[in-house]
Design goal:
This protein has five helices and four strands. It has about 150 residues and is α+β, with helices and mostly antiparallel strands.
């Protein structure tokens, strides 16, 4: 319940008089909820991604060939990071293989916003034994794809 004269956020965190950090301290509770629902509506993209029923994507996730995380920030930006067990390119300029994988997974067919992107992460490791000690050398590469259309 909202206390008279205090916004929802301040009521929840028990800020004192004059300490409100909200956009409008006089905002009614239902207006505050509506404003914040609008601010996070871009996160519905996460639901679309999780419900991706593309066969290739489902095969990759069920076969544990990928692990996926996502991050978001206050600028309405969502970035999915997909850790892949298989590298799709051997050089920095070789992006076509990774692009083909994203396309096969149906990523470009999903609803998306201007501030949405994917990062494919590949890690190559080499382990050897030197004088009885195990030494691992690894290289992590990332391919970043923005789903907004580049302007020309």
């Amino acid at each position: 319940m909202q206390e008279q004269g205090r916004c929802h956020c301040c009521y929840d965190y028990e800020y004192g008089e004059g300490q409100c950090e909200c956009d409008d301290p006089q905002m009614e509770y239902h207006d505050w909820v509506s404003l914040n629902e609008d601010r996070i509506s871009y996160l519905s993209i996460v639901t679309s991604f999780l419900r991706n029923d593309n066969k290739d994507w489902l095969d990759a996730t069920r076969g544990q060939l990928v692990k996926c995380t996502f991050t978001h920030d206050t600028e309405s930006c969502v970035v999915f990071k997909v850790y892949c067990k298989q590298a799709f390119g051997t050089t920095v300029g070789d992006v076509q293989g990774a692009w083909n994988v994203l396309n096969a997974w149906g990523v470009f067919d999903l609803p998306h916003s201007a501030n949405m992107g994917f990062v494919l992460v590949f890690e190559e490791k080499s382990t050897t034994t030197i004088r009885g000690r195990s030494v691992t050398n690894s290289v992590r590469r990332e391919l970043r794809v923005s789903l907004s259309t580049a302007s020309t």
